[in-house]
Amino acid sequence: MASYHGNTASEPAKMEQIITEFFAKSLRIILESRCPYVSSRNYSSEQVLLSPSPPSSSCSSSSFGLRDKSFNLALRDCPAALDNIDFWWQSNLEPMIVDVILVQRSGNWDPMNYLPKRGFARTFSGKEGYYYNSENDEFGYEIESEKIIERWVLHYESKQSGDHGSGVMGNKRAACTSSHALYNKSTLLLRSLYATVRLLPAYKVFRDLISSAQIRAYNLGHRVSSFVEPFTHREEADMQHFVFSPVDTSCGRLCLSVLYCSSVLDISSEPSTPISPQVIHEYVGSPMAEPHKRFISAPVSQSSPSSPPFGRYHSWNYDIYKVSPSSVNLSPSSTYSESCASMPKQLSHRFPPASLPNHTASETPPVHMKDPNFHEYWPSPTFSPSPSPSPSPSPSPSPPAYIPDSHILKALLRSESAPVGIPISRLSTLPKMPKNQLLPLSPSMGTSGRRVSKTDGCSGLYETGSMVDKLFTSAKDEAGKFSGVKQSSNSSSTKSFSRSPSRFSFQDHFDDSEFSGLFITNDDDLTEPSTRPGSFDQPGGLCPSGRSQDTAVGALICMLKKAPPLRPDISITTNLVQGSKP
Amino acid sequence: MNCEVCQLKELEVEHFEIREVLRCILHTILFHRALGLVRPKDVDLELFEITYVQCGDMELERKIDEKIDQFIDRVEKHPNKKNQICLSFYEVKNKHATWFTNKVERLFWEHWYINLNVMQHPKTPSGKSHHSKLVVDPGVEARGARRAALEASLRDVLFQIIKFVNEKKDHVPSIPNVEGIPFPYEITISSSSDSAFGMDMFKRMLQTGHPTMLS
């Protein structure tokens, strides 16, 4: 109704229509700015079609296709308000009372799933009206208190006029004037209402509820009825009364007033629980959450008791190939795992997160190293465990199952997060590690190191913390590309890995230039993989043809840990020290 | 038709608060007088916890910002003076082309006077040694109290507008079937030092030819 021009037909009906629409419009204006649930429903239902905007902010945009334009005030449709008005108010001119209720809750409750229970309220005349009850036990929260912070009262007082005018035409003209004036004045009144609802204290509470990312201990509800119990003197003393000037017509007067509580701001300013991002360590599929699905490897017992066994393993542990199918995850992602080189405690966070697409445990065949090709033992770059501890859909963040050589190779080649090799020449500039002094790529290397290292013959992959520190220091000095374990210059299979999430390429596994990290291996380790406890019994060596077994093993270990840890240095040092302990 | 005048409560503002305060007040008034079809737009003040409503008319927004810029320039040129913005609504009288003038007569039916007292920052006393104590900022608490007081006053002004709009409805002309503001309006700026500061209103009183009803 952009404008209302009276005509001589059924003026009383027109006036009644104006009043009915005025009530509906008023209810919409009030509920839109008071009830988060109503507002969010309106918001969510329209945002699919319309340009996004805050529910409390009606942007002046032509994109709002669904708008109620009555009284020259274009508002978005509010189904909840319509629900309230359609059944509730008809033509018997009962007052409409809208209570805005502040609900304070305690106990466990889920604000994300909060859905005000829809209930009924009986009017004085027996009519039922929908209202939104904040009581919602099914979500497990308890209501501490409810307080009516606003009470809007709309009613039309009809009056019996003894003066019916001087005739039909006189009556009609007066009615025309009356309906026209009623419409214009109602338009003005609705403008004032629209501005007023945003100036009252409850609006701030509403805005806090709909915009804040914090968990609030309170919420807003509403109740629409035609009869309510009046406030007590004590309650009314705390409230302020604002009365809009009534709109007088020849048949009555349209009245609007509000009782509001000014102290509601004190409640809304109470401290709330911020919803801050938190690292979830025990996400589904994490080793910490599902320890039984971790790698099945012997040297678990040697793991630090404080760290999960899986944490001792690198992602690309030798034992991966013994893991049950359910514990294997294969991701086609080309980004290699940074966690390969991560510290033990971080490995549990970093193992294939939920972001790993496509492959699930059920899809992964049992790991079995059929191909002695070195490539097979490289942790698949598709494992891309990201540093973020997102929950993993895979039951276990274990390395891949059977990975075809070509697949691995390609994946490794295209990996972006895998370590980048550094040239051997660079390695030569690094401090030379004595034999038997191998530094694991990650604390998990300790386990693999145990496998690969012997107490005597097999060079352990562990080094004291001091040595690790030195190496880390020097490693960091190397253009900061890597911070891993340095590789012995003696080893021809010097591999390096980077903890940086970039540039892992395996164009040639034994092309040292491809590696950015350092990996100290010992020839003894590389030559006797089978002697390592829990080592996978792969027929072939890790080395491609032309390389020593030790080198291959070392390279494999390096490959297994190619992803840099979340928190480099510290944990590695710690776990290395732990791992070095018998 | 009567000409209603509303003298809004005087506000003490700092220079950087002028724009927000004036926008809030002017748009609130115009929202109540833009009785054609509007798509309301909620605007949150940055300096205060107040949300006011605009008509959603970009052209109107631009005009108001222009006037506010003029007001700010005037304040800078005439410091230490009380400044006033007058928002007036009028109807265009039938043009009476005369021998002397083709001036279009305007029949004002409403005047809103927005009174701002722009505070000036205290200046460092001159001629004193550098060891002398400078005039210092009143302090965080004092500023906070002043800001809170201004916010309360601004909220009072907005309620004053709402009350005035609701109490005085009979003088408003019929609402034409147009979008936005159906009534022409003008915004004038004056200062207390101007001779026309008080005369401006008096002139309008003479123009309307009706006794002014002050709220």
UniProtKB/TrEMBL annotation, chain A:
Q: Which GO terms describe its cellular component?
A: Atg1/ULK1 kinase complex; cytosol; phagophore assembly site
Q: Which Pfam families does its entry note?
A: ATG13
InterPro entries recorded for this chain? Answer: ATG13, Atg13_N, HORMA_dom_sf
Entry keyword set: Autophagy
Q: Where is the composition biased (Pro residues)?
A: 382-402
Instruction: List GO BP terms, alphabetically.
Output: mitophagy; piecemeal microautophagy of the nucleus; protein localization to phagophore assembly site
Question: Record keywords: rRNA-binding included?
Answer: no
Q: Which residues are in the Autophagy-related protein 13 N-terminal domain?
A: 19-261
> Where does the record place the region Disordered?
347-403, 434-453, 481-501, 523-545
Write the protein's name. Answer: Autophagy-related 13b-like
**Which species is this record about?**
Olea europaea subsp. europaea
Q: What does the organism's lineage look like at the top?
A: Eukaryota, Viridiplantae, Streptophyta, Embryophyta, Tracheophyta
From TrEMBL, chain B:
- Pfam families for the chain: ATG101
Record GO cellular component, one term: Atg1/ULK1 kinase complex
An example Gene Ontology molecular-function term: protein kinase binding
Print the keywords alphabetically: Autophagy
Q: Which domain of life is it from?
A: Eukaryota
**TM region positions:** none
- What GO biological process terms does the UniProt entry carry, in alphabetical order? autophagosome assembly
Family statement:
Belongs to the ATG101 family.
Question: What is the recorded name of this protein?
Answer: Autophagy-related protein 101
Biological source species: Olea europaea subsp. europaea
